[in-house]
Amino acid sequence: MTKDPGTGSLLNKLSGPEPPRTANSIQYPDLKPRVFQSLNSEDYIRDRINDQLRFYDKKAGRYKSLYLSMRAATVIGGALVPVLVNLNFGPATVHLGSYSFTLNGIKISTTLISLMVVLFVSLESVYHFKEQWRNYRSTAELMKKEYFLYASGQGRYAGKTEAEAYRLFVEQIETAIDVENASTLQVMTTVSDVKQGPNP
Q1: Which residues make beta-bridge pairs with 95?
Q2: 21 burial type by CB count under 10 A (0-12 exposed, 13-18 middle, 19+ buried)
Q3: Are 173 and 48 in contact (CB under 8 A)?
Q4: CA-based angle 195:198:199, to the nearest 5?
Q5: Distance between CA 137 and CA 54 in Å, rounded?
């Protein structure tokens, strides 16, 4: 009994062998096609490091603003609640046409402020704005430090050839990016791990 060839094999026979794929024939998302070992130090700094620094600066600024804003609102709200509770204001009656409502402004205010504080604290425990801000900022500063050490030929790059220094520079930058990725993933999964608790 002969084996029926698959669709892929049949198409290959009809269309002929597939032409060899080169770097210029492969489409990468937002990446410039390059051949092996064609990326020099200037291109690496422009295309890799500058792109990452823009990303880290943007993220660090965003999470810093979120953390400080929510932290300030939480502190102010926590200080206002006990003050409002001790105020002696009775309920007010609001008339809207043929309808009238009795509202306790102090009670409503303290409830809303307390809800805001709880929500902000909960969001911080989920998204870890402070930790992410520190991760992005510290990684950006580390990359800048490595750049200036490499460009000036100082520190770990002193006494090395241009090829050796470039290889070490790339390794240091990529390691910093890998560490930041792992740290961010660890921070974002901490809450779910704590909620699940240890296995019995």
Answers
A1: 100
A2: exposed
A3: yes
A4: 120
A5: 11
Q: How far apart are CA 28 and CA 44, in angstroms?
A: 17
pLDDT tens for the chain, 200 residues: list them. Answer: 444 545 444 444 444 455 555 545 555 567 778 888 899 999 999 999 999 999 999 999 999 999 999 999 999 999 999 998 888 777 777 777 777 777 778 888 899 999 999 999 999 988 999 999 999 999 999 999 999 999 999 999 999 999 999 999 999 999 999 999 999 888 878 654 544 555 54
Tokens 């969001």 sit at which residue? Answer: 123
- Mapped onto helix, strand or coil, the DSSP state of residue 55 is helix
**Is pTM beyond 0.70 here?**
yes
Tokens at residue 119, please? Answer: 């929500």
Residue spans of the domains in the chain: they are: 41-187
3-class SS at 36? coil
Distance CA 107, CA 184 (A): 40
Helix count (H) and strand count (E) of the chain?
Answer: 6, 2
Structure tokens at 36: 């092996």
Reported residue count of the chain is: 200
Buried b (16+ CB within 10 A) or exposed e, 51-90: ebbeebeebbeebbebbeebeeebeebeeeeeebeeeeee
